[in-house]
Amino acid sequence: MNxxxxxxxxLNVNRAMKEKRFNCERARTVSIVDTIAKxxxxxxxxxxKEAWFxxxxxxxxxxSFKVSKTLNRWxxxxxxxxxxxxxxxxxxxxxxxxxxxxxxxxxxxxxxFHQHPTVVGEKKINIHDIRPISHVALIDYLQKRxxxxxxxxxxxxxxHYRIGKKSFFALGLQNKNGGWELRNCFQKxxxxxxxxxxxxxxxxxxxxxxxxFDFLSLLVIRPKWFIESDVLILNSLTFVTKVNSIxxxxxxxxxxxxxxxxxxxxxxxxxxxxxxxMDRRNCYAGFKDINEKLMHHAx
Length: 299
Fold this sequence. Notes:
It is a single chain. This protein is α+β, with helices and mostly antiparallel strands and 299 residues long. It is built from eleven helices and 16 strands. A hairpin with a 3-residue loop joins β1 and β2 (50-53). The chain is globular, with a radius of gyration of 21 Å.
């Protein structure tokens, strides 16, 4: 093998190692609390800095599994073991590290990152302008997701923000505490405080969805629901256990969560609490969520 081919091979090896390091670094920023929620488990108690769960590794009557939100690390007091999100998924799903990275990468479109929602790395999200949607890139993104601009216009804004010295813009859905869910074709962020979004039309029934595009897709696929229902956008499945004061006010609950294991468990959890709750996912059976069905049938 000549020197040039050897150097080329070394470059490829170094590049592959660098990409793996990057993937591991990015994977470790995925929120452990959101990861556990996606696997269908929710905190027994929670503060701004930590969350306590029943251990996912065994049956127990008192929560011994702690997640530090500030460090994004878990510790199981029952076993005296802990680690990062990669360690957790490897063990829970019996995956190799490579399989875990692939799984986390596939989930990142629905995960948030571990730091306080205003933080990316060590830099805050600073919103400096909120305006009606007008940028062609965001309009194209809505079209790609098969959402009419005229429909989104009344609920979604064009939000300009900075992370450090860099400027970005995204579609923004405001939550009830004044924070923003931010989406564009490259990024998914939240400008704190993280909270649910409640669209109130003063109806007796409530539709419950997971995210921004579930809500927008619902307006397209089931407009009658919106006419006859208020809509609760959870923005994170971790809020499923924190919205009882809202849910109990309605005479009927239409649940339209994702068709996955976390959506199954969240749906069954709510139906177990509220006999008035109905699983309405049959209207997009065969698809992961409402938007996936909308995009498929709009092709």
